[in-house]
From TrEMBL:
Pfam families: Fibrinogen_C (PF00147). Residues 1-20 form the signal peptide. It comes from the Eukaryota. This is Fibroleukin-like. Residues 126-346, 364-586 form the Fibrinogen C-terminal domain. Gene3D superfamilies: Gamma Fibrinogen, chain A, domain 1. GO terms for cellular component: extracellular space. Keywords: Disulfide bond, Signal.
Amino acid sequence: MASFLLLVVFLLFGSFSARAQAGYSPPGARTATGRLKTKVDRLSSLVETLLSQQSDLTARVDSLSAQLSEERDKNRELALNLTQALHKLDSMTSTLYEHDTVIKQRLQCACEKLIPVTEETSPTESTGPVIEGDCAEYYSSGRTTSGVYRIGLLPGHVDAYCDMDTAGGSWTLIQRRQDGSVPFNRTWEEYKHGFGNKSGEYWLGNENIHLLTNQRNYTLRVELEDWDGWILYAEYTSFWLSGESDQYRIHMSGYWGTDRNAMKLNNEQMFSTVDRDNDEDREYDCSQERGQGGWWFASCGYTYLNGRYLGNCGDSCPWLQGIIWGSWKGYFYSLKSGSMKIRPTEEVSTTKPRPSVPPADTETDDPTIEGDCAEYYSSGRTTSGVYRISLLPGHVEAYCDMDTAEGGWTVIQRRVDGSVPFNRTWEEYKRGFGNKSGEYWLGNENIHLLTNQKNYRLRIDMQDWDNQTRYAEYSTFRVLGEYGDQYRLHVSGYNGTAGDCMTRYFSNDGMRFSTVDRDNDLNSGHCCQRRGQGGWWFGNCGNSFLNGRYLVSCGRSCEVWQGVIWHSFTGSRESLKSVSMKIRPY
Ligand SMILES: *[C@@H]1O[C@H](CO)[C@@H](O)[C@H](O)[C@H]1NC(C)=O
Ligand SMILES: *[C@@H]1O[C@H](CO)[C@@H](O)[C@H](O)[C@H]1NC(C)=O
Ligand SMILES: *[C@@H]1O[C@H](CO)[C@@H](O)[C@H](O)[C@H]1NC(C)=O
Ligand SMILES: *[C@@H]1O[C@H](CO)[C@@H](O)[C@H](O)[C@H]1NC(C)=O
Ligand SMILES: *[C@@H]1O[C@H](CO)[C@@H](O)[C@H](O)[C@H]1NC(C)=O
Ligand SMILES: *[C@@H]1O[C@H](CO)[C@@H](O)[C@H](O)[C@H]1NC(C)=O
Ligand SMILES: *[C@@H]1O[C@H](CO)[C@@H](O)[C@H](O)[C@H]1NC(C)=O
Ligand SMILES: *[C@@H]1O[C@H](CO)[C@@H](O)[C@H](O)[C@H]1NC(C)=O
């Protein structure tokens, strides 16, 4: 608009001067010129105002655009900040996911040790929870998580740790040693009333044990662990204590276990402490001589589970001072941990379902149940088939391979036709699943129990879809327990034709077991989930994976790392046609 006005002014000036130059000067022209001049003056002043207004406007536009660009910069920064924040969130989410898995795992572990008593003492529960008579009653009322529970005992109540997991659960712990945090050199009064920490080491108290074991018939179970992780079990199907008037005398019978009955001497003995010598020995005060713990000393005997907690001093601990089961580790060895637990005896026969299937072998009248297939083999039962294996606390059936490599192999895993899915939960892998004549997993607990009795070797036989067969043998094979070790595997000493996929690269040795619902592997992801959902001793994630998906028709182009895999034999894209894992003692 400003330029248009300038043009008008210019044209007006132009015509005026043209006329002036032509010398045209009619009468009254002077007045006309004057009028024009004023007009022009007015116009030019108008233009000036307009011009100044324009520069005003320009300045305003300039400042606006500056503001705009500032805004734009701010926006850009905001977007940048936002992206950074999103990145941060992303990484936080993944960390959170990892933490979540860890927490879930810890929670699972913690639940096993949790103290359900706190829930009971909660004041909000006005009705008051039922206090059961022992851990077996809690178990059958559906409280099947290990932890400290309150036990109803006349005249008062007492807290005790309930082991709801071992050998069918329902166990009330009367004693536990595990770290030496609680001294066991105590007086008669202390042993009478009990001492220690119910979540850790403790003695339930002779009076309490007496009261409990006089209500029902109880089974006593002793569990001991040495410093190499070997476990001893001992059970007495009958166990009770007399009252204080009879010095808490012990009565036990019906022994069975993995070692000799080293408490035989203690049977029918009175209890002794440093301040009350009730033992059979006239010369010595056994408690004083043997580590100052309270016990049913004979004269003085060779088993003291309340001895001093000496730690790992190997075979050179002070003689007969530590925690000792004489016939097992000798008198110079102090055990790493141990517990004594009781469960109503009749409970065992009712809660433990008897296997309805008779042994598949024909000689059903043969009452001998052997400890593994090797024992059947050496007793002359040399036909492959399903046999019953004697294992504490119950029995289990397993397929015995009596033909391969001199026979006597107890099969712990077999895949032959894909009829049994192997994507299973922790609990299923723990207890075992499948069909003993076909595909199955013997169960981590059973494998653990078996391989802790003797030294076993592992043999894996496999076949690909061209009917080629290969094998891998490992001279040692051992699976540790669930608690603390999550069925950790020890395997070593390869020999065979299939190549070593378990100890060479990405070793499975020392790895804990993982399932879809419990990630114990070393990988930041979840090996099991990524590799066909079967349970295995995943490291990071490894080259062997015999519990993968049974894939049939994809030949050598199966989905990578999903099948039944032994990498050095068939690679990561082919799933084995058949495989079996079997163990035999030396
Ligand atoms: C972007 O982040 C920086 C540093 O955190 C902060 O100083 C700045 O104010 C943020 N900018 C905006 C626009 O939020
Ligand atoms: C238990 O042992 C500690 C350390 O040896 C000692 O101080 C304490 O007096 C002992 N207690 C009993 C009851 O012997
Ligand atoms: C009891 O033992 C548990 C497990 O060892 C431990 O975490 C806890 O701190 C102990 N409590 C006391 C009061 O000593
Ligand atoms: C304990 O078992 C014995 C025989 O084994 C039986 O006679 C007795 O009645 C049982 N006691 C209780 C309290 O069940
Ligand atoms: C196993 O796989 C089947 C089929 O893919 C699925 O339905 C089932 O939920 C899986 N089970 C577990 C425990 O992952
Ligand atoms: C178990 O497997 C065998 C062999 O594959 C088969 O003959 C049998 O029918 C299976 N039994 C069950 C209960 O699935
Ligand atoms: C593998 O063996 C089976 C059974 O003996 C037979 O049916 C099949 O044809 C064989 N496959 C090959 C590739 O030789
Ligand atoms: C593998 O085992 C066989 C038979 O036990 C033995 O003869 C051979 O020497 C072993 N090979 C290796 C490399 O250990």
